[in-house]
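FAQ: What does the model actually see?

It sees only this:
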Amino acid sequence: MLRAVNTPNRLGIEISGDVEDFHILYDALSKLAGDEDKWPYLEEARLRILAVCYDLRHALQGHYEVQTYDNGLLPEIIRSRGRLGPRENIRFAFKILYPEAMFVAAALNDFLFIYQGPHGESIASRQPADQMDLNIVYGRYFQALVLRCAEEITSKSGFKRLRNAMNTQFPWTYQYFSQYLDYLDEEFVRKRPERRGVILPTLVERMTSKGPEYQEVVRSIREFADEHGCEPGKVSFVDEIDWDNLEW
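And it is asked to produce this:
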């Protein structure tokens, strides 16, 4: 079973699961993200979803954390049935920054809308077999895991605001300049641990509303790209965060 917990310093979420859990989530997110260039105006959001798939794949390869846990094989069961196997199972785990987790959870609204049908009709209006589609179930499951962790570190009123901000309308990720997400990542990392839960609702509102601050970032990126003769997607912010040694 997939499990999500807040990291000690509230920097992000640790997601863990066994081999089958991660394979199912990987397949679901990959299929929801769709094929390359199918929805070019949603490509930046698609790449952020695929970044989670990247972490899932590397976690399965043992590049991140590997955990052991008691599988419930009690001594009396072993005595009554003979040697059945090890008493511990393996869980794989990876960490994701809060802004990234919230963005992917919100972006999945767009990709679930597309996946559900040619016109993005409600899943409730389709055949019963479609309602049992594991890709949809696991996409929603990932969203629920992220929201449950966010609820634990925000106030009741803050979480209500956060939920409202996550209730996006298709296609909110249209031509999204993901450099703004990089900017929010850096800002969040620089906050004190005790402040991160406080500012998270506001951060999500800024992320999904694409308000004046976002528009100013977009304008700056386009001006820089025009001045240097490059594509806006190639422009990135310079920061001084040691991303490999974060205090999660």
